[in-house]
Amino acid sequence: MQLKLAMIGFGVVGQGVAKILRDRQAHLKERYGAEFVITAVSDVKKGAVADPNGLDPKALLDHLDNHPDLTTFPAPERGWDALTTIRKANADVVVEVSWTDVKTGGAALGHLREAFACGKHVVTTNKGPMVVAPWEMLEAAARAGVEFRFEGTVMSGTPVINTAWKCLRGCEITGFSGILNGTTNFMLTRMEQGLTYQQALAEAQSLGYAEADPSGDVLGWDAAGKVVILTNTVLRKPLKLAEVQLASGITEITPAHIEEAKKTGERWKLVAQANVEDGTVKASVLAQRVPLSDPLAGVMGPTNAVTFHTDLLGPVTIVGAGAGQRETAFAVISDLLDIHATLLARQG
Amino acid sequence: MQLKLAMIGFGVVGQGVAKILRDRQAHLKERYGAEFVITAVSDVKKGAVADPNGLDPKALLDHLDNHPDLTTFPAPERGWDALTTIRKANADVVVEVSWTDVKTGGAALGHLREAFACGKHVVTTNKGPMVVAPWEMLEAAARAGVEFRFEGTVMSGTPVINTAWKCLRGCEITGFSGILNGTTNFMLTRMEQGLTYQQALAEAQSLGYAEADPSGDVLGWDAAGKVVILTNTVLRKPLKLAEVQLASGITEITPAHIEEAKKTGERWKLVAQANVEDGTVKASVLAQRVPLSDPLAGVMGPTNAVTFHTDLLGPVTIVGAGAGQRETAFAVISDLLDIHATLLARQG
């Protein structure tokens, strides 16, 4: 089956999706019978082009290798903003991979609203709408009768949300605890290897893990956003960002703390968790000493992990990449293939 | 949607399934719209009963609490053997949870063949047919146009096969390494805590982890069977049990070995793995020293884990229960819910 895509955002993740489509189209068609055709791209910085017959992903990427944006890329339509693209492109699926704002939801909130209003399926890796208005989004998709996937909002393409939804059906997930921020886990790993907090931060920044203003990572806000997404969509309990208990993140961890933990067979981790007790949610992102016997203790460097606590199966832990262009772009491909399989089954 | 089940086998796993249905029928109906009705049970030891209108799981379990078998359980049909049950019961799904024989496939091989020939969907936790004839089974299901699930054959209900099939679509899984036998991992954990091999084995036997003849576990044959299943179904490469490289399992690990590994920041694990190199599979179950930074090193006690090596996403590790009545019965429920969702989507 062919699915036409409108890409809202063509930055790191959007171009990552284009790279996979450039390199794997034949494989995806042969293995899954899926053909994904980009018919529109709209990006606030790179510009916008659309072609109802499809834009060649290789040509788009080659153009951006040699030009700052898409304004000179040959296409029958150009200059459509995001909302126009969602309305006018002949797309089956809107792929929302624009800039993330977890405080307001950002422009992405409007993109998803418009996509659902237009009856388009949606795949997003954008945390903004799913932190700010997860229930509105889920309900809008259900009302519109369209498919909606957002695996890439937590732990990039590592299958966390889809595993909980599809492969843990039948047991009750009563809570989770995880390492949901790669930057801080990398820093803690390096501090355990002897670096100070400032040295570890500088290294994380030089490797591109941490931004110039690292507060979203080191204070725990980034992880808290992911706690909100998992709580609302996997635990199915309403939770707002302001309700996640935060302290100082990892900013007060010293080499002395780390040495002390080592002595008792423990390791400092920034643990993001939520649990349902008597129907109410308690959620937090706190630096904690985790015993080495806990699967989370062995998660080192920028890797992420989440342990789902279930009633019938006990704890189930998934460990994998938490970020990365290719890894997050894979989340989009994986979600597109899942929508493709769902639509195919529906055709009978 | 209602799905009628014929249970082939009503031992530990079969009764575990009945327990979940007894306790969760209302929940499964409310959450997923799924109603599972047992219309036949056939077990070589417990006897066989069938009722086209449904057998109450609570009544079946209560009866077995007070009687050695089902011969006096009131039902319109009784005494059908497995093949007769598959042919004559008004079931949509055959749940094959009979006795496992990984050398010949056992009677289960015939049960699955008959179920596919009769056009029944199949859920099984039985390693036998999937070790001995995985491609025959997959192809028979495809030819019959029926759904076939076997999550419970590896790591009980911990979602491994379904995660690979459904949530890692789009990337190439080039290999895996795992801890696929809980008994040996429990023994290694206890040996690390100071027990000798013989003491650890005795404890594993007293806890019911190891059988009186523990050779299937300690020599690696059990794990090798799971390697065969994952290689054929997830890596999609043909591999026979005899082709898995085995040595002495964990039988030659001594406290001295364990101490030596500790000194270099390593830990002995019975690592089950397979990798595709230049199109050919290399598979083994060997005791190995694993660095503590490897996610598999932190997997302690009877817990199991598998790391899938993927091209787009890097390593993805899933850690969870490897055995247990409730955990394996959950695999059946989870697979039934997946079949239910697939059939529902197909109805449109």
UniProtKB/TrEMBL annotation, chains A, B:
<feature type="active site" description="Proton donor">
    <location>
        <position position="226"/>
    </location>
</feature>
<feature type="binding site">
    <location>
        <begin position="9"/>
        <end position="14"/>
    </location>
    <ligand>
        <name>NADP(+)</name>
    </ligand>
</feature>
<dbReference type="GO" id="GO:0004412">
    <property type="term" value="F:homoserine dehydrogenase activity"/>
</dbReference>
<dbReference type="Pfam" id="PF00742">
    <property type="entry name" value="Homoserine_dh"/>
</dbReference>
<dbReference type="InterPro" id="IPR019811">
    <property type="entry name" value="HDH_CS"/>
</dbReference>
<comment type="pathway">
    <text>Amino-acid biosynthesis; L-threonine biosynthesis; L-threonine from L-aspartate: step 3/5.</text>
</comment>
<feature type="domain" description="Homoserine dehydrogenase catalytic">
    <location>
        <begin position="159"/>
        <end position="337"/>
    </location>
</feature>
<dbReference type="InterPro" id="IPR036291">
    <property type="entry name" value="NAD(P)-bd_dom_sf"/>
</dbReference>
<keyword id="KW-0486">Methionine biosynthesis</keyword>
<feature type="binding site">
    <location>
        <position position="211"/>
    </location>
    <ligand>
        <name>L-homoserine</name>
    </ligand>
</feature>
<feature type="domain" description="Aspartate/homoserine dehydrogenase NAD-binding">
    <location>
        <begin position="9"/>
        <end position="151"/>
    </location>
</feature>
<keyword id="KW-0560">Oxidoreductase</keyword>
<dbReference type="InterPro" id="IPR022697">
    <property type="entry name" value="HDH_short"/>
</dbReference>
<dbReference type="GO" id="GO:0009086">
    <property type="term" value="P:methionine biosynthetic process"/>
</dbReference>
<keyword id="KW-0028">Amino-acid biosynthesis</keyword>
<keyword id="KW-0791">Threonine biosynthesis</keyword>
<dbReference type="InterPro" id="IPR005106">
    <property type="entry name" value="Asp/hSer_DH_NAD-bd"/>
</dbReference>
<keyword id="KW-0521">NADP</keyword>
<protein>
    <recommendedName>
        <fullName>Homoserine dehydrogenase</fullName>
        <ecNumber>1.1.1.3</ecNumber>
    </recommendedName>
</protein>
<feature type="binding site">
    <location>
        <position position="127"/>
    </location>
    <ligand>
        <name>NADPH</name>
    </ligand>
</feature>
<dbReference type="GO" id="GO:0009088">
    <property type="term" value="P:threonine biosynthetic process"/>
</dbReference>
<dbReference type="InterPro" id="IPR001342">
    <property type="entry name" value="HDH_cat"/>
</dbReference>
<comment type="similarity">
    <text>Belongs to the homoserine dehydrogenase family.</text>
</comment>
<dbReference type="GO" id="GO:0050661">
    <property type="term" value="F:NADP binding"/>
</dbReference>
<comment type="pathway">
    <text>Amino-acid biosynthesis; L-methionine biosynthesis via de novo pathway; L-homoserine from L-aspartate: step 3/3.</text>
</comment>
<dbReference type="Pfam" id="PF03447">
    <property type="entry name" value="NAD_binding_3"/>
</dbReference>
